[in-house]
Design goal:
Elements (H helix, E strand, L loop, with lengths): L3 H9 L23 E9 L2 E5 L1 H4 L10 E3 L6 E5 L3 H4 L10 E7 L15 E11 L7 E8 L4 E8 L4 E7 L6 E8 L6 E8 L2 E6 L2 E5 L9 E9 L7 E12 L1
Antiparallel strand pairs: 1-2, 1-5, 3-4, 4-15, 5-14, 6-11, 6-15, 7-8, 7-14, 8-9, 9-10, 11-12, 12-13
Amino acid sequence: MAPKSIISLFSLLPITAVLALNPSCAPGGNFDFTVWSLQLPTGSDGSVDTIKSKALQGCSGYTGPTFYTDKTNGELILTAPGNPDLTGCATTSGSEHCRTELREVNKSGQNTNWPPTGTNTNTVRLKVVKADDGTHGTAIGQVFAAEASKPLAEMYYSTKGDIVVGVKQDADSDQVVIKLGNVPVGTYFTYIMSYSNNVLSISINGNKTTLSTFDWDSPNCYFKTGNYNQGKTAVTSEVHIQSINVVHS
């Protein structure tokens, strides 16, 4: 067995190689959902349908109309409907948009959060097949402040392939929007969201941007990842994920 220091080192490295995925399995046969639950665009406003971690796990785990396996390559496909006034989709409390989005939980399946000390990273390899037509596009990843119940950092992908992040100056302020890069629609890329050692940063294909946390006082946070549609019209957004890796140490 490799020493713990070596294991820790490799766990922090970006994912560049993707393990073979099984197209015959539900998403839980290809992805580790022991640290995720799933919010769906169904249910009722303020009380969307949520699939617990245990139900997501394994080759026979949950699959549905907006969360399923690509039968050609085993990737995870997440779709989300557009403007709820036009599509009738259900929104979470405090949101005007619909989502098919993973929310971080602990190994017992309960909602969790963590202090921004040590290492806290979420590394995702994906492609956006269809972005929504919202101001900045589809939200594909978040660092969410638990107590404030607001996103500290929300990363978006637009119809033009622009990737930006909105960072709130505090819980009640509007987002300050910072461009991170551009990846053509339908092209794979890897992002790393990190709030480690009290430093917030995002890397796109290895290009790292360190972000100010303004007036936030090192809030406990959790990760969200997936497809959070910000659209003005009824256009359905579509995200394909090859790998997800969360590290806390």
